[in-house]
Amino acid sequence: MPRVLAAFLVVFAVLLPGCAEDTPQSLADEMLEIMDDFADVLEGVTDVQSAKDAAPELQKIADRMEDNFARRRALGEPDEDTQAEFDREFVPRFEAVVARLDRENARIEALGPEVLSDLEAGMQAMLEIDTSR
Q1: DSSP state of 130
Q2: Handedness of CA 90, 96, 102, 105 (dihedral sign)
Q3: What is the pLDDT of residue 127?
Q4: Which of 34, 84, 30 is nearest to 59 (CA)?
Q5: What's the rounded Cα separation, in Å, for the pair 14 and 38?
Q6: In a domain, 77, yes or no
Q7: Which domain holds residue 82?
Q8: Cα dist. 47→62, 88, 103, 104, 125 in Å?
Q9: What pLDDT, in 10s, does the model give residues 20-40?
Q10: 23's torsion region: left (phi>0), alpha (psi -120 to 50) or beta?
């Protein structure tokens, strides 16, 4: 049994770095997941206390977004064909998540300024992310 486990660990260690390599597609999938998590946090905001509880979660999400954008910048610009394929595959998915975020944002705004002020720090972290390529 220990030999099987050792063999598995060797194979896992060899294959894992190849699986973890960033690609435009893997980073887009990750960003979609982050944006869904962002919407989930906003969905949980129903009052002042839940807004206070959400603020640190928004900071964590902002940190994940910042990391994703930094890794995307490291990849450089895609060629035109790659960009066109990417746009066909991912733009509709991004639009759906953004629509969800817009709905949650409008709902939270309707909860009043007290709720918004408690989310402000977490939301400010989102605005400070360097999204340049």
Answers
A1: -
A2: negative
A3: 81
A4: 34
A5: 33
A6: yes
A7: 22-127
A8: 22, 39, 16, 13, 21
A9: 699 989 999 999 999 999 999
A10: beta
Tell me, yes or no, whether 34 lies in a domain.
Answer: yes
Tokens representing residue 56 in the block: 């640190």
Q: Which helix (H) or strand (E) covers residue 74, if one does? A: helix 48-75
> What digits encode the pLDDT tens for the residues 57-104?
999 999 999 999 999 999 998 889 988 988 999 999 999 999 999 999
Residue 44 lies in a domain: yes
Per-residue tokens: 93: 């998915």
Which residue, chain included where needed, has tokens 């969800």? 100
Residue type for 131, please?
Answer: T
User: What are the backbone dihedrals phi and psi of residue 3, each rounded to the nearest 5 degrees, phi first?
Assistant: -65, -40
Number of domains in the chain: 1
Token pair in block for residue 16: 């894992």
Instruction: Kindly report the pTM of this predicted structure.
Output: 0.78
Any domain includes 118: yes
